[in-house]
Design a protein that fits this description.
disordered N terminus, hypothetical protein PF0899 fold, 11 helices, single chain, elongated, alpha+beta, 432 residues, Immunoglobulin-like, 30% strand, 20 strands
Length: 432
């Protein structure tokens, strides 16, 4: 049962009286109303009788749960990017629908195809619960008695419990969210922009120009700056920039704010300082869409267990989460490396497909540095033109041949979004 009416800044007597007000009638009869002068008397009434002692500790731990979950005494620097609590289920299904493709107007064709379907290009990514941690703290009879020997003893006890539970959880959450950045970079999913190291005023100014240019660029519709190669954009107000303290210290943030046409105070909300980028040693900064983090809490729980032999209580705080990132959101890494695409290989190289049927193509990309491995596909007829509006290839490589397609041969090409000169093609024979 949660204890109502408590705040994290409540005085010791307020804490004790709030617990008393929410306690059983037996507790209220045995434990007097607390004042600054009778803390020890209240402590004796609580600790010398097991039922009142247990009821007090259970109420206290519930209060601590409220403080941790609602007040968040010590902030995870990346907490603002969490999406909240997932109330049902433990997995997230992220769906992206590609923009529709234009088709040429032809009244004669319209007569034949008005009732034919054009299947939207839909991509789905599942984000699964991948964190199930718990934290444990022990409170002994002696610790409880000691807490009532001074006026601030109760606050000190609460502080120790909060620090031991919340600080561990908060720090781990921060590390796990940072690891999402590292993992994304290790997989080559960021779009890399090469910059010189930020070492002085000149390099900082040059870096400011790069940041501003990319911030303006991703405001336009493009399939170049996200891992899945879908058409999307990021408005200026949704751009988040991650920097290390060293990089931020060399930047003229006021000048950078002006470069973004934002007030200094407003721009500060766009820059988030992290201590480092882990294994991404050459990264100077990251620029992502606010929707990039896919972090949801799925379960909070406090439980306790009393050890009669040892005369102590063990309290357990469970925290479960979905920790992931969106590959549909724009994400850019400013790196001192020079990225490149070595090769692209499409598979299968040849295929035979009947009209009205589909075939799936996959592509292997070999990259260096942090070059994005995102690709796009196109399909053309090997002779003449594609005649069916239903012949198309999706952004994930699924080729569908229209039932009325007249072309007998097709070519599918996989093209690097990072470097369009790198591509590979497959040939398809179309049968009736």
């Amino acid at each position: 049962m949660a204890v109502k009416g408590m705040s994290k800044s409540a005085t010791p007597e307020a804490i004790l009286n709030t617990i008393r007000a929410n306690a059983s009638s037996d507790y209220q009869e045995r434990v007097p109303v607390a004042t600054q002068q009778n803390i020890a008397e209240v402590g004796n009434a609580i600790t010398n009788y097991e039922p009142t002692r247990n009821e007090f500790l259970n109420s206290l731990i519930n209060r601590i749960g409220m403080v941790i979950i609602q007040s968040r005494l010590y902030e995870n620097p990346l907490r603002e990017f969490k999406k909240g609590m997932l109330e049902f289920g433990k997995d997230i299904e992220e769906i992206f629908v590609e923009i529709a493709k234009a088709q040429s107007y032809d009244p004669e064709v319209a007569e034949k195809e008005v009732f034919k379907r054009v299947i939207p290009d839909v991509k789905t990514i599942f984000h699964r619960m991948n964190r199930q941690d718990f934290y444990k703290v022990t409170i002994s009879n002696d610790q409880l008695r000691t807490a009532f020997l001074s006026y601030r003893g109760i606050e000190d006890l609460i502080g120790r419990i909060v620090d031991s539970l919340y600080s561990g959880d908060n720090y781990d959450e921060f590390l796990l969210m940072k690891h999402l950045m590292v993992d994304y970079g290790d997989k080559g999913l960021f779009y890399p922009v090469t910059v010189t190291p930020i070492t002085d005023e000149a390099s900082a100014k040059a870096f400011t120009v790069k940041l501003r240019a990319m911030a303006k660029t991703i405001g336009f519709m493009s399939n170049k700056y996200n891992a899945q190669g879908v058409h999307t954009f990021t408005p200026m107000q949704d751009i988040i920039i991650f920097m290390t303290p060293e990089a931020e210290a060399l930047m003229d943030v006021e000048s950078l704010a002006r470069a973004f046409n934002l007030e200094y105070a407003d721009f500060l909300g766009r820059i988030v300082i992290v201590d480092d980028f882990g294994g991404l040693e050459n990264v100077q900064a990251l620029m992502v869409d606010r929707q990039w983090f896919m972090v949801y809490d799925t379960f909070f729980n406090f439980t306790e267990q009393y050890n009669a032999q040892g005369l102590y209580w063990n309290y357990f705080f469970h925290h479960w989460q979905v920790l992931s990132t969106s590959q549909f959101a724009n994400a850019i890494a400013f790196t001192t490396e020079t990225p490149s695409i070595e090769s692209i290989t499409i598979s299968p190289k040849t295929a035979t497909v009947s009209k009205g049927q589909s075939v799936q193509f996959t592509t292997q990309v070999v990259s260096n540095g942090m070059a994005s491995e995102a690709i796009s596909y196109n399909v053309v007829a090997t002779s003449g033109d594609i005649t069916s509006a239903n012949t198309s290839i999706s952004s994930n490589g699924l080729l569908t041949v229209g039932e009325d397609e007249e072309a007998t041969g097709l070519q599918v090409t996989a093209i690097s979004i990072f470097n369009s000169s790198k591509n590979d093609s497959a040939t398809i024979a179309v049968t009736a």
